[in-house]
Write a structure and sequence with these properties.
Mean pLDDT: 83
Order of helices and strands: EEEEHE
Strand order of the largest sheet: 2-3-4
Largest sheet: 3 strands, antiparallel
Radius of gyration: 12 Å
Distance between the termini: 15 Å
Length: 66
């Protein structure tokens, strides 16, 4: 299982956590809690990999960092 590092910030205007995976186009999300953001990013990565986003040669399952 591959592990990805996420960059996470809390938006001062909305109070939402916003995160993205550097170097992985389209891998970004937002949520009210860090746990929800982690789940969202995990789902986004899986969807991108299922769509055969092999521009980086990545295949298989992924695990977003908390």
């Amino acid at each position: 299982m591959r592990t990805y590092q996420a960059v996470v910030e809390k938006c001062a205007e909305t109070g939402l956590y916003v995160g993205y995976i550097p170097g992985f186009p389209g891998a970004h999300s937002q949520a009210e809690t860090l746990d929800d953001l982690n789940r969202n990013l995990h789902e986004v990565i899986e969807m991108l990999l299922e769509d055969d986003n092999d521009s980086f040669g990545w295949h298989g399952r992924s695990e977003a960092c908390p």
